[in-house]
Amino acid sequence: MSKLFRAVIMGPPGSGKGTISERIAHSFGLKHLSSGDFVRENIAAKTEAGVQAKTYIKKGLLVPDHVMTRLLLPRLEEMTKYSWLLDGFPRTLAQAKALNSACDLDVAINLNIPLETLKERLRHRWIHPPSGRVYNMCFNPPRVQGIDDITGDPLIQQEDDRPEALVARLRHYKDVAKPVTDFYKAKGILYTFSDTETDRIWPNISTLLNTKIPTIQSDARCASTH
Ligand SMILES: Nc1ncnc2c1ncn2[C@@H]1O[C@H](COP(=O)(O)OP(=O)(O)OP(=O)(O)O)[C@@H](O)[C@H]1O
Ligand SMILES: Nc1nc2c(ncn2[C@H]2C[C@H](O)[C@@H](COP(=O)(O)OP(=O)(O)O)O2)c(=O)[nH]1
């Protein structure tokens, strides 16, 4: 059977999941699957799960596990031929267990970034809600201030990126994420990266994936000749 590469990336809001996922997708040719993008697509398409998800997001809540897994697992089934990196899922132990029954993961990347750094980053984060594109006024600013590069639409700052909301969000993240990282640690696939800068974390992630991905893809090549 051919073996593909399957990874998840975890970390608190602002830890760089989106930024690092894009780099991984670009450098290693994996598909970057973002749970936030899936949620937004389902809301736009008014699917049953999308309609349910919208009621929670409007209140600034996480989407419940059963809605999230119903929305996400069928999309993963469409990806059986591809290597992928999943960003934003799982966020809870229930989601991690649901994912575990659907597929075998090779690597779980865990970003551990100091609180002060997260606060500072999210203060400067601006997003283009229809596409999910993320900018940072210092790190990756748009070409024109306040305007999306591709569509020319105005950018917005999310309510829950404000410093007051953020501390509560981060506390909640820690409580919910710990059982998930423990779960992956017990499986021996957890790799934690701690730093204040994505550019310093990136070479270490790249080295890790260089050691993991060629082996797996050469397995896949052998398998495909039989
Ligand atoms: N795994 C998940 N479980 C529950 N809700 C989710 C999950 N993934 C996404 N969502 C919902 O979709 C919304 C958008 O997700 P997305 O990951 O794009 O943004 P976010 O919560 O601002 O994350 P971050 O700040 O870490 O980038 C979330 O706020 C949440 O309500
Ligand atoms: N100053 C600075 N900003 C960074 C760095 N890495 C990412 N950012 C920016 C990009 C975003 O505006 C914000 C959060 O990054 P993100 O990739 O959206 O994180 P996440 O919420 O998906 O985990 O921080 C970084 O290393 N330094």
Poorly predicted runs? 218-226
Strand content: 5-15%
Question: Which assembly state applies to the chains in this document?
Answer: single chain
Number of helices: 8
Shape, principal axes of CA atoms: globular
CATH architecture: 3-Layer(aba) Sandwich
CATH level-3 fold name = Rossmann fold
Can you summarize the main beta sheet? 5 strands, parallel
What's the β-strand tally?
Answer: 7
* Ligands: adenosine-5'-triphosphate, 2'-deoxyguanosine-5'-diphosphate
In short:
This protein is of the alpha/beta class.
Give a verbal description of the structure.
- GO terms for molecular function: AMP kinase activity; ATP binding; GTP binding; nucleoside diphosphate kinase activity; nucleoside triphosphate adenylate kinase activity.
- It is found in: Mitochondrion matrix.
- Keywords: Acetylation, ATP-binding, GTP-binding, Kinase, Mitochondrion, Nucleotide-binding, Transferase.
- Its EC number is 2.7.4.10, 2.7.4.6.
- By secondary structure, the protein is α/β, with parallel strands linked by helices.
- It has one domain: Rossmann fold (3-Layer(aba) Sandwich).
- The protein has eight helices and seven strands, in the order E-H-E-H-H-H-E-H-E-H-E-E-H-E-H.
- A five-stranded parallel sheet has the order 2-3-1-4-7, sandwiched between helices.
- A hairpin with a 4-residue loop joins strand 5 (125-128) and strand 6 (133-136).
- The longest helix has 28 residues, at 198-225.
- It is globular.
- It starts with 5 loop residues before the first strand and ends with a helix.
- Bound molecules: adenosine-5'-triphosphate and 2'-deoxyguanosine-5'-diphosphate.
